[in-house]
Design brief:
alpha/beta, 4-stranded parallel β-sheet, 325 residues, 6-stranded parallel β-sheet
Length: 325
C-alpha cells in the first residue's frame, strides 16, 4: 500500500512532467538518435518511451550485469549494446526480440586493455596514500551497498544484511594477519565512512583499510584475492584480471551470476565457511588451475573481447542507427 501511494503521489506526476518536458525538447532538437545508460529507472524508461512516441530511434547501453534481480526484462528500446552473448540469451529467455541486441563488449573494460601496464603502479601508489604496505599481499572486499536511498529487501534478508556480511569479512583480518584487507565502498553508497572506520570492530585491526573515491581497477590488479558481495559487477572485473574470486551469498536468492557454477570462483553461503575458502584459495594450487581453465570462455560469454575496441563497436552502432533516420 505504501509503494502504491508513492507511485500515485510522486512517480506518476513526475513521469508526466518529464514526458511533457521531453516532448518539447525532442521537437526543438529533432535528434536522430536518443541514447541512455540502461532503461531501469523511471527517468530512463520515460526517455525511451517518449522518444519512441516521437518516432526517434533509441539505443540503450548495458551498464550492469543482467540478472533476474533486475527489473528491466522487457526491452522497449530499438537496440541495446550488450557486454556479451549471455545478454542475448537473457533477453531471449524473457521473450524479447533478439534482433534488437548487439554485442559490443563493455565500454568500462577498454581501459583494462589500453592501461594494463599502468594499473600496477597506480595500485601501489594508492596503497602508499592510504598508509598500507605495497609489499604486503592484499585481499580486496567489494560489498554491494551498505546504505542507499531505496529499500533492497527484495534482495537482502534484512536491511542490515551487508553489515552481517561485513562481520564475517572481519574474521579474515584476524585469521590472516599477514594480509591487508581493503574494503572498497561503492561510489553511490550513502554510508558514513567516518562511522564505518571508527566502528570498534574495525578500528581494532591495523590491517584493514576502507576506501571509496578510488579507481577499483588498480585495486583489483594488485590484489591476491577479490571477494565480492552477491551482485557486484566487480566480480566480472576480477575474472578478467585473472584474480582468484570468492562471491558471498548470505541473502535470499540463488547466485545471480554463475561465477561458481562456471568454475571461475568459489561461492560462500555461510559466514563460517569464508575463512576456510580464503585458506583454500591461497593453499590449493589445483583450485587456481580450475579457475584458469574456465576464465577464457566465461569472459567471452559475459564481456566479449577485452581488446580496447568496445568504444569503436558502440560508435559504429550509433552511426548506423543515426544514419538510418
Amino acid at each position: 500500500e505504501k509503494n502504491i501511494r508513492g507511485f500515485i503521489i510522486y512517480n506518476f506526476p513526475q513521469a508526466k512532467k518529464n514526458i511533457l518536458l521531453l516532448e518539447k525538447l525532442y521537437k526543438r532538437l529533432k535528434p536522430k538518435l536518443v541514447i541512455t545508460r540502461e532503461a531501469v529507472r523511471m527517468p530512463e524508461k520515460t526517455i525511451v518511451f517518449t522518444a519512441r512516441q516521437a518516432g526517434i530511434p533509441t539505443l540503450v547501453i548495458q551498464h550492469g550485469i543482467l540478472t533476474d534481480g533486475n527489473a528491466y526484462r522487457r526491452l522497449q528500446a530499438d537496440k541495446i549494446a550488450l557486454w556479451g552473448k549471455v545478454g542475448i540469451d537473457w533477453y531471449l529467455a524473457h521473450g524479447n526480440d533478439i534482433t534488437k541486441c548487439v554485442v559490443t563488449g563493455k565500454l568500462q573494460h577498454d581501459p583494462i586493455y589500453s592501461r594494463k601496464n599502468d594499473y600496477e603502479a597506480e595500485g601501489k601508489n594508492l596503497l602508499l596514500r592510504i598508509g598500507a604496505d605495497p609489499g604486503k599481499e592484499v585481499i580486496l572486499y567489494v560489498p554491494s551497498i551498505f546504505k542507499i536511498g531505496v529499500p533492497l529487501t527484495t534482495v537482502y534478508i534484512t536491511k542490515d544484511s551487508e553489515f552481517f556480511a561485513l562481520n564475517s569479512i572481519l574474521n579474515i583480518a584476524e585469521s590472516f594477519p599477514d594480509k591487508q584487507l581493503i574494503i572498497k565502498i561503492h561510489p553511490f553508497d550513502l554510508v558514513d565512512l567516518s562511522s564505518l572506520r571508527d566502528n570498534p570492530k574495525i578500528k581494532k585491526f591495523s590491517n584493514i583499510y576502507i576506501v571509496k573515491n578510488a579507481d577499483i581497477m588498480p585495486l583489483i590488479k594488485i590484489s591476491s584475492l577479490v571477494i565480492t558481495s552477491l551482485f557486484s559487477s566487480s566480480a566480472l572485473d576480477a575474472v578478467i584480471f585473472n584474480k582468484p574470486l570468492i562471491t558471498l551469498n548470505f541473502y535470499k536468492r540463488d547466485d545471480f551470476v554463475p561465477f561458481a557454477k562456471r568454475g571461475v570462483a568459489l561461492s560462500v553461503t555461510n559466514p563460517e565457511g569464508l575463512c576456510q575458502a580464503v585458506r583454500q584459495v591461497f593453499e590449493d594450487t589445483k583450485l587456481e588451475d580450475l579457475f584458469i581453465s574456465n576464465r577464457e570462455s566465461f569472459i567471452y560469454d559475459y564481456a566479449y573481447k577485452i581488446d580496447g575496441q568496445s568504444w569503436q563497436r558502440v560508435k559504429d552502432l550509433i552511426r548506423e542507427m543515426a544514419h538510418k533516420t
